[in-house]
Amino acid sequence: MLLHLPSTIKLAWRLLKDRRVPFFGKLVFVLALAYVVWPLDLIPDFALPVLGQIDDVAILLAGLRFFMRQAPPEILEEHLAQIK
Question: Which pLDDT score, from 0 to 100, does residue 1 have?
């Protein structure tokens, strides 16, 4: 997964800038990003260090997955081809 991280970041950035991608998918992804940097968590990082970080990663991955699924497949493929 870490090997694909740079490509995933580039893809997410390109999809966020693309006007053809639905706004709601972008909104969910941005909210997931905001959750990760927001100081208040469902499971506080300081109280349960490992679980607190796992919930951040889980929400971020769920938001990213939802965002990618909201993008039309042809647009997703177009951006993937330009990244590689």
Answer: 64
Average pLDDT over residues 10-39: 94
Q: b/e per residue, 55-80, with b = 16+ CB within 10 A?
A: bbeebeeebbeebbebbeeeebeebe
b vs e for 3-21, b when ≥16 Cβ sit within 10 Å of the residue's Cβ?
Answer: eeeeeeeebbebbeeeeeb
What's the token pair of residue 20?
């053809």
| Averaged confidence pLDDT in the chain | 89
> CA-to-CA distance for 40 and 13, rounded, in angstroms?
25
Residue 57: the pLDDT is 87
Residue spans of the domains in the chain: they are 2-83
pLDDT, mean of residues 29-52: 80
User: Which is nearest to 26 in space by CA: 10, 40, 14?
Assistant: 14
